[in-house]
Amino acid sequence: MLYEEDDRVKQNELEKNQRLNQYNDIYDKLISDNKDITKQNEAYLDDYLQKNTDLANRTMDYKVDLLNQQQKQAEKSYQNETKQINADYKKSINPYGYDAEAMASSGLLNSSYAESVNVNKYAKTQQNLASTRANFEKQFQDFENQKSKARLENDSTIAQYSLEVLKQKLDAQLQEFQYNSDLTLNKLTNEQNIDNDYYSRYMDIVNQINYEKQQQESKRQYDEQMKYQKEQDRVSNALKEKYYQLQKRYS
Q1: What does the DSSP 8-state code read for residue 5?
Q2: 10-residue stretch averages of pLDDT, the chain, 251 residues long
Q3: CA pair distance 163, 155, nearest whole angstrom
Q4: Does residue 1 fall inside a structural domain?
């Protein structure tokens, strides 16, 4: 840099750096604030996802608990119904029961007919037990299907929340990138403008210093010329005076 020790050049460089630092601080703060806003927004989204996930899980747990209660009630009803069928069967074949007494009074207690009746009672009981078991298994499977459906719906709900949050995060990150890119570009443009401005001022100072130096050189040359001229005049006058004295002496 020309004339870097000149106070005017130093002052111009100082003002340029101060101005660059001032504007760079503004742009850097805007970029930093934008990043903080994005992070804060992501924290809000994470909290939103967590709360909705917890709510969805609690809702699913409640539904599953209700289904479990209904399933246990169905199992209890099945067990009671099975006990009742077995109790009715045992009662019907009780040798001291009403049916046995009726057979005895008819003289059919130990007959093939009585045996056939008991076989039919056993078959009917087994049929009732099988039907009751089939109904219970169907109910049991229905409850299991409903619980699976509740879990799948919950997984789908949470996945939807996650997808929504992810999309919003990506949108926010893209917006931050674009905004910060614009700020960085503006920052570089501003730096270039400031550099150009103060370079122009620097060149004005250089031209002024050059002009001053030219003026000083011109004055120096003029003074040297005048000094030389005076010396020539002095020498000329001395010679003239000497010549005059010589003439005067020999005339």
Answers
A1: T
A2: 90 96 94 94 95 96 96 96 90 62 57 65 90 95 96 96 95 94 94 96 95 94 92 87 77 62
A3: 12
A4: no
